[in-house]
Input
Amino acid sequence: QVQLVESGGGLVQPGGSLSLSCATSGFIFGFISISWFSQAPGTEREAISCISNTDGRTLYADSAKGRFTVSRDSAKKAGYLQMNGRKPEDSGIYYCSTFIRQQFWGQGTQVTVSP
Output
C-alpha cells in the first residue's frame, strides 16, 4: 500500500535551517510528484512546494521562495525539503503528499521555530 513517512522535524531557532525527508513505498516513485504542505495550529493545511516526477520542475509558495528547496532522490524513493532562514510563523506540522487516484499523506512531522 502507499506509504509516506516524514522525518527531520524539531526545534530550530529563527534564521536556522532544517531538512525534512519523506520516505515512500507502495508505488513506482518515478511516476509521481511529491508535494509538501504545512499546517500551523488553528489554520488550514497549505501547499509549500512540489517537485515533478517528469522533469524535476519545482514550484514554491510565495512564503517559501528563496528560503526552501525541494528535491527528490529516485534511487532512495525519497523527497526532501531543505528549509533555511526559518521564521516563527513557519512553525507547524509538515506533511509530504502525493496523488495516485487519490491524495495520500504522511503522518506529518512537527517543526517549531523559536528562540
Remarks:
- The first strand starts at residue 3 and ends at 7.
- The two ends are 40 Å apart (CA to CA).
- The chain has a mean pLDDT of 94.
